[in-house]
Specification:
Elements lengths: L6 E5 L6 H6 L5 H11 L6 H9 L9 E5 L2 H7 L5 E4 L6 H5 L6 E4 L9 H6 L4 E3 L3 H18 L2 H4 L5 H6 L30 E5 L3 H12 L3 E5 L6 H7 L1 E3 L2 H7 L2 E4 L13 H6 L5 E4 L8 H10 L4 E4 L21 E3 L8 H27 L1
Parallel strand pairs: 1-2, 1-3, 3-4, 4-5, 6-7, 6-9, 7-8, 9-10, 10-11, 11-12
Helix pairs in contact: 7-10
């Protein structure tokens, strides 16, 4: 039986906005159509998927879903909300004090540094966490791009015939197989390995930590930089070392930029940082293009400072055909059409798991009251 007037306050985020379509029957038809179109290439019957899912969370649907884009907007919603879904907005002691008794907090992610857990515990407000599959997908994508740059896959894909190399004025010279093997028959120089290399991660948030875990498994030395240093236990668990940004750029063989885009991070990788970059190092960005200053990036490519570049997002999407960056594509430079999160199923399953966690807690409370 549905809980009447259940109110859910949600931090405004491009994925969290979809919760309104899943849970709030008052959501406009225009928004429903737009979201269905967003999912159509992977989930053609999005409306049917939502209808089927709602039947598995009785008591959570229908709900009133309201959004907050700022801390002030969030505080205004707190006194009336039964459930709060927050990603990065701070939930400090004063915010927790404004929440109604029995409210539930769900962190859209695994890190709760923006939530005053002690204040929540004092008021017996449960805090649920959701490690997101999307974050793992982005980390996989970043790692795939790094490996592709290391082995120059974009450059040499299909370069397997003698005729190809003849056309490059580099005819194949076979080895003396009586004494050698045949590996790298095209004699491609300076291919890199990840094991033993140094990775610099700019931004050790949810995705940055997923990247670090994968890099550690590959035997890489890992530096990281962000505004606030991580806890010592987190550094130990992840096998990472904190570094100034300039030192990270100087020492790293690969640099992955994985920060949110805001006024303080826009252009954080500029001319000074790229000049400090270890010659031949490779740069990967699976977050937002504008984290890198565009003109400085062009300089680094034109000067040969970069050994490789991979970007999942552009400064404009779709990219303009005359974008000067595109002339470098294929020269150990990879530009992807914003595909890091993979199948839409991954993002939707995160939202369904979010709903399921909330529903399970609400249902357990209802069961306890009946007993």
């Amino acid at each position: 039986m549905a809980v009447p007037n259940l109110r859910i306050a949600v931090e405004f985020d491009h994925f969290l906005r979809i919760l309104a379509v899943i849970l709030d029957p008052e959501t406009s038809g225009e928004q429903r159509s737009a979201v269905a179109d967003f999912f159509a290439h992977d989930i053609p019957d999005f409306a049917g998927r939502c209808e089927h899912f709602r039947s598995s969370i009785p008591g959570l649907y229908p709900a009133e879903v309201r959004f907050a884009g700022t801390k002030t907007e969030l505080h205004a919603l707190l006194p009336d909300c039964d459930v709060l879904v927050v990603e990065s907005l701070p939930l400090d002691e004063s915010a927790v004090a404004a929440m109604k008794p029995g409210a539930i907090v769900l962190k859209f992610g695994a890190l709760t540094s923006n939530i005053d857990l002690a204040a929540c515990a004092k008021r017996r407000i449960p805090v649920l966490k959701l490690p997101r599959k999307v974050n793992a997908a982005v980390a996989e994508h970043a790692f795939s791009l790094m490996a592709a740059l290391a082995r120059e896959i974009a450059v040499y894909n299909g370069a397997v015939t003698a005729e190809f190399w003849q056309g490059q004025n580099q005819p194949i010279r076979t080895y003396d197989y009586r004494y050698t093997g045949a590996s790298n028959f095209a004699r491609i120089p300076h291919l890199h390995t990840l094991a033993g290399a140094t990775l610099g991660i700019v931004g050790l948030g949810e995705v940055g930590r997923e990247i670090a875990r994968r890099a550690s498994a590959f035997g890489m030395s890992i530096l990281y930089h962000q505004r606030t240093r991580a806890a010592a236990l987190d550094e130990l668990e992840l096998g990472v070392r904190f570094s100034a940004l300039s030192d990270l750029m100087t020492q790293s063989d690969f640099v992955i930029v994985q920060l949110p885009l805001n006024d303080s991070t826009r252009g954080i990788i500029g001319r000074r940082e790229l000049e400090a970059l270890k010659p031949g190092a490779m740069l990967i960005n699976t977050a937002r293009a504008a984290l890198m200053d565009r003109e400085s990036l062009l300089w680094a490519l034109e000067s040969g400072r970069l050994g490789g570049l991979a970007m999942d997002t552009g400064y404009q999407e779709p990219w303009p055909q005359d974008d000067p960056l595109l002339r470098f594509s294929g020269k150990n430079v990879i530009f992807m059409p914003h595909t890091a999160i993979g199948d839409r199923e991954i993002g939707l399953s995160d939202l369904e798991e979010l709903c399921r966690k909330i529903w399970l807690l609400l249902d357990s409370r209802r069961t306890a009251r009946r007993n």
